[in-house]
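DM from R.C. (forwarded with permission)

"hey, sorry to bug you on a friday — could you get me a structure for this? deadline for the figure draft is monday and I only need the backbone to look sensible"
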Amino acid sequence: MSGIYKKLENELCGLRNNGRLRNLAENEDMNLLNLSSNDYLGLASDKDLLEEFYSGITDKTISSKYSMSASSSRLLTGNHSLYLELENELAKIYNAEAALFFNSGYHANIGILPALAGRKDLILSDKLNHASIIDGIRLADCAFKRYRHCDYEQLEKILSKQRSNYERVFIITESVFSMDGDIADLRKLVEIKKKYDAFLIVDEAHAVGVFGKNGCGICESQKVMQDIDMIIGTCGKALASIGAYTITNNIVRDFLINKMRSFIFTTALPPIVVNWNLFIIKKIPLMNGKRLRLAELSLKFRQNLSKFCKISGESQIIPFIVGADKATIDLAKKCRKNGFRIFPIRPPTVPQGTARLRISMTTEIEWEQLDKLLKCLR
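My reply, with the result:
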């Protein structure tokens, strides 16, 4: 075995010995209650929605709206009319000037910051932002600092001392944090960005569809939608699809089209996927009943869980922090034996010593099932 393979094998052995080796899980056991999904509104398994969507297929539409490949990037021949219809619909729902659609949330986050930020700029990022945001920061050719999680006092101290050293400053945060389930104070961030002339980017990946009257996210529920420079939403979670988008203005939209490498150099999504996204996004504002049920279910479970352990957060994502990696794996196995599909989340996805079960609520869960889980965790 050559040296490079030996080194890789040794690293894998180290991961295995530390209880951090990852494997691709199979979804063959349908009898387990899935509490690791991001299908918060239960749309991915909604057969009525699928039937309604496919009922639109006709001889005239099958090649234009239901084709399985775009065969090109959007800047060449992949920019079919459905994209423009989708972006117009998004801009309308958010009451914004412009929207731009991407292949995934990862494509969005690794491309936006490197496109916008230059050598004379500074990026300030919440310490618990998603890995895709961190990757985007690393690709950007500029200075960056991470402020303590939701510590806006520290963020303001950094700005008061260093704002004058940089041409532009970008502040980026998640709204609902993916591993802790807590929520950013966007009102405070808007106040800070205005005070220090910063550009505020908010990733609403786990809030889109779940929060706000129209399902636009925390920016809508905290009533700061028009004060945020760039909102990033994804379709791969509550919207039961794939793809992502940014809500912004025409200047930024045009700039990204010209400078964002993960937008320029990738094949566009198939028309059928863009069509499905358009179909779902039109329905999201009408799903307040589902949002209310999800909020009530999440709150009740969190309150009952807090009776025997410390729980943080305030969303549909509920972290049950165990601490040690092996103990977390063992607890996940116990849950599986009791009928629950919950995966152990370990470093480096979460900080050292905070391995956990990340419990995701969906509207399709019944309380009797969660009551059984409470007994298992207790």
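R.C.: lifesaver. The chain has a mean pLDDT of 95.
me: no worries. The radius of gyration is 22 Å.
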